[in-house]
Write a structure and sequence with these properties.
Blueprint: E1 39-40, E2 47-49, H1 58-71, E3 74-78, H2 84-98, H3 102-105, E4 117-121, E5 135-140, H4 144-147, H5 158-183, H6 190-195, E6 199-207, E7 219-222, E8 228-233, E9 239-243, E10 246-249, E11 257-261, H7 263-268, E12 278-280, E13 288-296, E14 302-303, H8 307-313, E15 322-323, H9 324-332
Parallel strand pairs: 1-10, 2-3
Antiparallel strand pairs: 3-11, 4-5, 5-6, 6-13, 7-12, 8-11, 8-13, 9-10, 9-12, 14-15
Helix pairs in contact: 1-5, 2-5
The chain binds N-oxalylglycine and nickel (II) ion.
Length: about 350
């Protein structure tokens, strides 16, 4: 573990007081963002309109999803059914949370990734060798009544606004899982059934302005451990996706979400849909806020390639089956790395 050069727990509490970042945040030259090499094109990530998902055009939308999932692993959605006001309130209250005094934010501080509500910094502060320019609040949010008592009470509207947002996001995720299931040629409820009572977590990522964004990351390149991730972000760019051997920056569009395939979906789809590398970079000028909602299987759910895909395609299972909790423990026992966590779950070929 790297120790911070400052006595502050959170990067937002010293970021504006320095002109050079502490050495604990500086990446080796071979592992820097190389921002001048990044392709900037918001158009390269497909934008899918879900307005007619339950109308006569469903098959066409499912087809667009199939294409986006198999070629990008990332797409944006509009007319997704989450009200604009729900989104605006969520962004506002999240920003208010991070603008509170240090004493209020650090009340929730913990370095223990198993805690179901916590504020922390970097990715996994107990394992990161180089730190990341990010603070975050992470919560569990399904079933809401099991966790809401742990959530922050300041700002005063935090619980109410977050509960409304999380409920709306859960409904959206269920619609997406059905459509993605169909896009793989599976029954609508196939993926949902595999997952058991799926868990839902949220992160509120806060990236303060950084005096030397070329030397560090908000989050380094990684693949999500999820089934799918549905990301809300403010209007400040920072997310980049690895596509055709290049980093591509994703331009924020108001009231759209970015959806990406996570490792569990890669396994279920038997590699038809890939969990794609992505990262968050920081900038000198503006703070950035992003709010990913993570869909996970139940801990005891057994994840494996869908049988139908293996027999239909006459292809071998790429992965063995495993209880989700086995993957989860492996994921949190390490720092965020570009190496896929899935290598340990490959089917043996001998
Ligand atoms: C994540 C993530 C990207 C972003 O939290 O897993 O990839 O833009 N975030 O903050
Ligand atoms: Ni991610």
């Amino acid at each position: 573990m790297a120790t911070s050069a400052t006595s502050k727990l959170l990067v937002s509490d010293f970021a504006s007081t320095i002109s050079h970042i502490p050495s604990s945040y500086v990446r080796p030259i071979s592992d820097r963002p190389n921002l001048s090499d990044v392709a900037s094109s918001g158009d390269s990530i497909p934008l899918i309109d879900l307005r007619d998902l339950y109308g006569p055009n469903r098959a066409a939308i499912v087809h667009q999803l199939a294409k986006a999932c198999s070629t990008y692993g990332f797409f944006q959605i509009k007319n997704h059914g989450v009200p604009d006001t729900t989104i605006e309130k969520m962004i506002t209250v999240a920003r208010e949370f991070f603008h509170q005094p240090e004493s209020e934010r650090v009340k929730h501080y913990s370095a223990d990734p198993t805690k179901t509500t916590r504020v922390s910094t970097s990715f996994n502060i107990s394992a990161d060798k180089i730190l990341n320019w990010r603070d975050f609040l992470r919560i569990h949010c399904f079933p809401i009544e099991d966790f809401i008592q742990e959530w922050p009470t300041s700002p005063v509207s935090f619980r109410e606004v977050t509960a409304e947002y999380a409920t709306s996001l859960r409904a959206l995720i269920l619609r997406l899982l059905e459509a993605i299931s169909e896009s793989l040629g599976l029954e609508r409820d196939h993926i949902s059934n595999i997952l058991g009572q799926h868990a839902q977590h949220m992160a509120f990522n806060y990236y303060p302005p950084c005096p030397e964004p070329e030397l560090t990351y908000g989050l380094p390149g990684h693949k999500d451990p999820t089934v799918i991730t549905v990301l809300l972000q403010d209007q400040v760019s920072g997310l980049q996706v690895f596509k055709d051997d290049k980093w591509v920056s994703v331009k924020p569009i108001p009231n759209t979400f970015i959806v990406n395939i996570g490792d569990q979906m890669q396994v279920i789809s038997n590699d038809k849909y890939k969990s794609v590398l992505h990262r968050a970079i920081v900038n000198t000028e503006k703070e950035r806020l992003s709010i990913p909602t993570f869909c996970f299987p139940a801990a005891e759910a057994v994840i494996s390639p869908a049988h139908e895909l293996i027999s239909k395609q006459d292809s071998l299972a790429v992965y063995r089956s495993f209880p989700f909790v086995e993957y989860w423990d492996k994921f949190w026992n390490r720092s965020l790395a570009t190496a896929s966590c899935l290598d340990a779950f490959k089917a043996s070929t001998t």
